[in-house]
Fold each of these.
Amino acid sequence: MVNVVWLILLLGGIVTSAWSHGVGSVTQAVVNGSEKAVEVAFGFIGIMSLWLGLAKIAEASGLMRALARTMAPLVSRLFPGIPADHPAMGNMLMNMAANLLGMGGAATPFGLKAMQELQALNPVKDRASANMITFLAINTASINLVPATVIALRVAAGSRHPAEIVGPTIFATSVAAVVAIAADRVFRRRGGDDQV
Amino acid sequence: MVTGWIEVLSTWAVPFLVGFIPLYGWLRGVKVYETFVEGASEGFRMAIQMIPFLVGILVALSVFESSGAFDAVIHWLSRPLGHLGVPAAVVPLMLVRPLSGGAALGITTGLLHRYGPDSFIGRLASTLQSSTDTTFYVITLYFGSVGIRNIRYALTVALLGDLAGFVAAVYICHRLFGG
């Protein structure tokens, strides 16, 4: 599916440009897009290094394992084949906790670390494992208890009840997560061949 | 009240972790500074590994957006979505949200200022903005960082989740805030 989406974005853009205001603008768009990619990646280096460093301490001190052992019963059924005290579990839990608390900056490094650990368990290295996809499904639904960014925006716009969207957000984000997990279950069963 | 504890929670989360993790490590006899540096040294390699995947997705998005194709899609979808209770002003936000976090945040800010944060549009936009993530970006980043090219059904599952989140947000906002 990602192949089709990618092709549609590229070809749709080129055709529309040629038809409306000249295909020359595509050249500029291509340059802008690639520059942006490097900018984003470089912008990440600092904060990512920070949380990866802290994650290493949490791992070496046994904090990650302790967290995984306490919380794993809640999520282990979602990730069959991953032992409760495997570092993949600890990192996934840290990622989910950071997302829940609206700490986007911390969620990403833990999420990437979790992907590395899941990759170590993955039998086919250039193909996503079933547990990776489940993790991503939960992650993109981003269950969120503290929509800190939006609350700050609402305060700045002069809202009288900036936090009144917390309830609706928790509802919508839970529905998204439940549907994503259910869809993931269906596909996972159909895939059948690997459960790791 | 609710705003109060959410504010405390979100202000304290980062400072607490940055203090607590090293302290716990030190009490457990970990050489905290050396261990920190060892972990942090992975940050650069991880960021570099993301670049090809980011170039792929951001170039395609940039071509599509700058061509005006995006505006055309928004235009076509406004009427059918209007029948389903989605105000036309919010349609661009729904389409941009899974693709670009920065652009979505810009649109939300614009809507809050133009219609007011306590209007129906302002409340719906706030809920939409905070209830899903930038799906394409997260998928690109996470799979890219470990070099996975075949993502199987991941995008389908994630987009189904987004769609459900949008429907739920529209429903609950109509239910709670009228409009």
Note: Chain A touches chain B through 107 residues (CB under 8 Å).
Amino acid sequence: MSARFRRYILTKLVWYLVALLAAVSLNFFLPRVIPGNPVDTIMAHFLQSGGQGAAAGKMYQAFIAQFGLERPLWGQFLTYLGDIAHGSLGQSFSLFPAHVTTLIGQAAPWTIALQLPAILIGWILGNLLGALAAFKRGAFDRNLFVTALAFSSIPYYALAIVLLYVFAVVLPIFPASGGYAFGTIPNLSWSFIFDALSHYLLPFLSLVVIAIGGQAVGMRSMAIYELGSDYVNYATSLGVSDRRVLGYVFRNAMLPQITGLALSLGTLVGGALITEIVFSYPGVGTLLFNAINANDYPLIQGITLIIIVAVLLANFLVDMAYGYIDPRIRAARSGER
Amino acid sequence: MAKHGLHIRLVTAVTALALAVAGSVAVAQTLPRNQTLYIGGFQWGPPTNFNPLASSPAWPTGGDGSMNLQADGYLYETLFMFNIVDGSYEPLLGKSMSWTTPTQLTVKLQPGSQWQDGQPVTASDVVFSYELGKKFSTSYSGMWDYLASVQAPDPQTVVLNLNPSKPNPGLIEQYVSTVYILPQHIWQAVADKGQSALLQYENFQPVGSGTYKVMSHNPQQVVLQRFDNYWGKDLYGMPAPEYVVHPIFKSNDAGNLALKQGNLDWSQEFVPEVWTIKNAGTWYSQKPYYVPGSIPMLVINLQKPGLDNPLVRRALAYAINYPLIVETAVSNYSAPAKSSLILPTGVESKYFDAQQVEQDGWSYDPAKAKDILENQLHAKKGSDGVYVLPDGTKLSFTVETPYGWTDWMAALQVVSQSAKAVGIDVTTKFPQAPVVTTDVQTGNFDMACWYISGVGPASPWSRFRDMLDSRNVPPVGQNAFWDYNRYSNPKVAPLLDQAGAATSVAAKKAAYAQLDKIFMQDIPGIPLMYRALLFYEFNTSVWTGFPTAANPNHAQPLFNIDVLRSLKAK
């Protein structure tokens, strides 16, 4: 590793650190810009029945004090920074007294198990199919392109609702909701794994089919563009083998796709909200949605912080990886133009 | 070697993850369907505590301090259960109650009652539980506005002495039938640590006195198992379901689909056109299907120019198409709303004065609305078809309710259309719930569809209080917890106190009649429809015997233990 490259990494690291600090601060202030007040919401629940006396005012104050909301904003901000430094994300307001880390810890495995395979499989299959279509052309390309385009333009929630309706209502082959059958105590047995998989399939399909479509369309156009470029014509005229040309084409067309992958992996931890709602599937998406609906600042902050870190991390890794995938970038870095 | 080590570590990590996902229980178990009752509609987020004193207790310990306790008698028990249909009290931990003087209520406890850990339930547990509300801010601290002291002269007797300056027996009876009794031998240690510790207490291994114990809980479901050593098994009988599962759905639609598919046996969700579902039933087998239990109210901010004029409010009251609200917004689960704060049916009907409502109130009559606008207010129609008052105030207002509260949103669309039809411009807006909540409490709104007290031992007193009583209500800008319209009238307070203290139906009715007359004259709000306290629908494909109006079996259309005792496996 050259000294220049080390400096390059160091500069990048500093930039990412600055971005992280800015994001962490915004992360504190933005949820507080949402109109409404978390304690009003909790009080509304108690007042639903009406008939509360003067005690309601005392209760309001008790919650304000419990959540530390009576202190000035900068004091709350310092506590927040201190908590983060100690690895604590605080306690949820709307789901008090649960700790934010516990709530995310319960939901995140479901989100990762649902989304990571969907994104990776969608990405790999989509890119292979797209490149193949661009290379083969003809009927294969036409059929695949139209199909992929159709799937990529369906909003993913629409596909989820259609899948639910067809395979869980009209033909009740698959269960309609939940991560596993209600009334089952989770355990490590084959029957439970089979049950969990049968609940997994529809939400998974609703995500992966659309991912494949989107990736294939993107990859196909990139590959067609590359196939028509000068270096391909030049290489072909030199008599370089098809295989080798394809290798170059694939590598060049991959670049934007990799950025896309990194971003989707980064935002993955935010959950697939509509999929979760349609299939009542456990996950981070509904946790965040409900937190926003209840002005639950600590829970919103906790989840968005994790998204921020994941996105920054993914981008950083892409920045690093680009150097190896794209010789032009590597050349620019080490000054050999 | 290194590679091998990594491999083992990886396998360990994967297994640990799988175990974490699986909840670390290693025994295969699916609850037998014919011994399991599936219930839905109370819990929407992860259960985070079973502490009835916390800010968001999970089912079956939740509730909001009114009659809609979510699960009275499952885990924790109240002294009595109030029947919202006939006004009677069913015993639970309490055996009988009687007013020894107009300001002293004596409750006798059931002999032999026990906590699930075998300790006896005594009068001191009751005193302890009630006094928690005095020492700390809890959902039932309000009872101490009306209570002077609670005593336990012997282990089977509880005496409640009312605050002589604010006698309100109905409200005390409401608390006696809605406050869960907690075991002092467990909760004393928590209470000794103070308010914060009490709110923080998760109570994940709850010990109640009821018929079920919490068996397991996770973000997808809460599972209860029958406690066969229940102290009242000979007295009350045991419910048939061995297990009760509350699946945590993420939307009403998912819950309703489960009810249709027979995967949910009993639900309190709003189901449109419930009569179309196979095997489903409700309390009434025909319109309105549910027992009216509350009055969603168009709360009017009396501080706003234009709306501060009672004649404008009266014109609006005549303009609203109440029958259309019933038809389009609430699936015919209501009769068209009457212009009264008293429910015309059920336990409050004894106070409802149909003649007075006919005489002083309003109903859908757009011609009358126009007449008030033109001949009484002398308003002139602008070029946009909206009336302008002689002082230049344009009759143009907003009305709000939370986004996603679909029946109320639809009702407000009707309000908007029918007001426009007579020349009052009413624009709907549907922000997120916390925004509306803050708007309503701080007085930052024109009009809003909001809830006020439902039916209970203290109603309709509490409903009049919610709409008319300006005592302890802060000015606009600070949070009010009733009287959101900021109505103020010196005649109200004495009448309210009189109605609250009255012990005979006739005396109460007389006071309510005057209060209702004030309501109909000054119109600080407009009743839009009637709503069930809790929606109550069941699917009989696995369990039968759900109590209905035809066969109530001492139970009522709520979700208390009395319903469970009637069930039979099909």
Note: The longest strand of chain B covers residues 94-101.
